[in-house]
Every structure is written in structure tokens, then in C-alpha cells.
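User: Predict the structure for this protein chain, please.
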Amino acid sequence: MAALNAALNADLTITTCEMHTGGEPLRIVESGYPQLTGDTILEKRRNAREKHDHIRKFLIYEPRGHYDMYGAVLVSPDLSEADLAVLFLHNEGYSTMCGHAVIALGRYAVDRGLVKTINEPETQVNIQCPCGLVKAYVQCKDGKSGAVRFHSVPAFAYKLDVEVDVAGYGCVKVDIGYGGAFYALIAAQELGLDVRTTRTATIIDAATAVSDAVKAQVAITHPESADLSFLYGTILTDGHNVYSEEATANVCVFAAREVDRSPTGSGVTARVAVQFARGQIAKGQTRTFESGANGSTFLGSVHAETRCGDFPAVVVEVAGKGYYHGKATFTLEEEDNLKEGFLLR
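Assistant: Here is the predicted structure, written as C-alpha cells:
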């Protein structure tokens, strides 16, 4: 705590742009964040985690944030084709991919002039995420940005029907899909729950129990990077996995029991990849994915087939829209004994 307090004793002022996608917040840092060292985005992510984590807590934790706050820090890309690069912040640390943030950042990049040329009816924005390059396509008309669709990094079904022993629920089968981050996928009814009607606290407990079981019992290795080789969270679904014109709902619980308000962009990516591997959705079919938390929706489809290491993979298209809802300037007073932030659930 002493080291953290010392780090925050400087004259710290950070300004942000506040957005949300499907109700999931995105706090975009605009000024005040220190320059990160590292030649690659993963090295910058490591530097942020090891040297500047007090600023993540300053922005994400209470009293400036809350348990389920989400943030983004723009950094210099190391891919020549990228228009910008981004690090994602949450209550536990630093994600490798975030679809709702990419959707919001697509609009933000167009509106802030972070791309060289604005084209109508659609402007392409290349966003380097820790998991790789994600291509966003922003609707543009009369100088105004609108809905956004993005093409994911190669997504794949990592394991299907894996048996895990979950505390309080016994032996269950889960699928593990990768959509820029790894998720365990399970129908909520397998745990006696309903993603649209069960209390959020119960959903959190169940999803966390599944995540804990998978982390303890299943080895997860990304074929290209050790930095990506971890389970990010669990997605409880309504079990309606076969393609239909009706929406399929889910709730994602990730990081340290954090609940995504949106349908979860990288989660939709993972779900589509698993559904494709099972023959439940075909290339060109567009499915509506609904948040069991608040009813907001994303569209998901298979854009192309590809590979990731030895895994057959797909590029998934996810579509939605981010919205602006404010700006903020965050400061501290040195005598504030809670200036380092805290979390309360």
C-alpha cells in the first residue's frame, strides 16, 4: 500500500471520454496516462501491469469507478496497418480483447480524426488489440458516425464437451471457445438457471464456479502466444445454439466476477466459432445475440474461414453501436486516505 500511495502522491489529473455499448461502459483515457515502454503491444501491456497498475485502480475502482467499470488506454501501434492500438482495463487487470470496446472505439476514432480518410457510407478503422489486429467498419453519413461492425482475429473451438467438476453443481460439460480471449460456454439450464430471469448474483456465483473449475482442471494454451493462454470468463447461455432468426441470450461473467452488460463482443465471437465448429451456424447466416442482463443486442456471423495454428478457425463479424454519454476529469487530494481506490460489491 505504501508504494501505491507514493505513486499517487503526484499531481495526477486524468481526462476521459465516457461511452457505452449495449450498456457496458467504456472509459477512454484521453490525457494524463504515462508513456508506456515496450516495442510491442504485449510488452506495453506488461509494462502497464507491472509499473502503472495504480492508475488502472485509480480509474476503475471506486470512488471514480465501480466493480464492473471498463476502460481503454490508447497506445502507439506496432503494426504498420493499424490506425490505433488499445489496452483494455477491468477490475482484475488487462484483457486481450474486448468487442464492445472495439465497437465504441470505431466511432471514437472516426469522430476524433484518428483515421486519415473518412469514407461514406463506411470507414475502415484498424485497431490493434493485444490479441491482434481487429478491423472495424464504421457507418458514416453527413459527417456523423453510426453503427459499427468488426472482423475478429481468428476464432476457434478449443475444446468441446469438456467434463469438469463444478463446486455445488457436480460434473458438467462445457465448451471452450476463443474469440480474442478464452471463454467457457455452458447452457444455464444445465445449472438449473435461466439467463433472463435468474438473479444476477446467482448467475455470478454459478459462472464463477464454472470458471474456477475450468482453470483448475483444464490446461489452456493459445497456439501462437503464451500471453493469450488463460481463461477470461464463463458465458451462461439460453441453450439456443442452433441457428434461428430468434435471438439467443447469454450473460458473461469475466475477470474478478465482473458482469458484462452487453452481449459481449468477444464472447459472441467465441460462441459463433463454437457453433460453426458444431455445424449449428453456416457462413453467411447472421444471428442476433441478446444480453440476458439488459436485453441489448449484437449481430454475429461467420465472415470467413481460416486457421489459427493447428485449429480450424473463423473470422467472425460482430455488429453493434456505441454511444457517448459524457466526459470526466479525475483528480486526487493527497490527504484522501481512499485515493488509491477500493472495490465494494
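Confidence is low (pLDDT under 50) at residues 1-6.
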